[in-house]
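[job 4471] stage=fold_predict status=RUNNING
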Amino acid sequence: MTAHVPSVLPRIPTNPPLLRRILTAFIRNEVRKVGVERVVVGLSGGVDSSLSALLAAEALGPENVLGLEMPYRTSSPESLRHADAVARVGGFQVLRIDITPQIDAYFERFPDADPVRRGNKMARERMTILYDHSARWKALVLGTSNKTELLLGYGTLHGDMASAVNPLGDLYKTQVWALAEAVGVPEEIVRKKPTADLWVGQTDEAELGFSYREVDALLYLMVDLRYTREELFRVGFSEAFVSRVAEMVKNSQFKRRLPVIAKVSHRTIDRDFRYARDWGR
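[job 4471] inference complete, writing structure tokens
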């Protein structure tokens, strides 16, 4: 699907200096609030994990950040090279763990598994490793999913969508790119095509069928400014594009919520028993 983006639209606000101050303070406060000083972050070599890691190094000090590279045998060597480059910029340590043995051992029993199953398994394997090392290192798992991915459901539940603290979850990809440049993510990482590197040649935008800049322009009006469908059509978005994206947002709502709990009491968790994350602290 190619999406026509109108040329004159309200623009997504992007103020890198302000975002940088807000997000480093957020990381510092949220990590220390639970009594720890450190974070672990999965480094994919992409712009999202690079930005999260550099913000954490600035917020907590590089000695309190551990980057984990977790390649599979088909992962791009370029991704590892980029992850190493970010660690050098941020001055934090990196640990590399090859996930090939455990992934291949599992799929020996299921040789017909399609790429989606294999990609989801890899994403969840990586997250279990991150949580294991968060326990070993007395740290929190730092998230890397941005607002565009979360709204579209473009991520693996309990895989790359999991984390203890996520500094990027309210930033569209467009804002991630702008902030990444300001924070010092190497230019070749900011400029390259986004990919989860789940299989050879995979790119996010080819899989989605539209570009992040196209969908960010639509999501900003749809979600933040609450434009109606008719208003979106009037400013020039096609009905097919609006319908496709609206369905993706609606159909992925379950990924943004806790599992549904059967209500059998007066105070059901997440329905009646609802307190802020830092309740009681």
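[job 4471] summary: Strands lie at 38-42, 65-69, 93-96, 139-141.
[job 4471] exit 0
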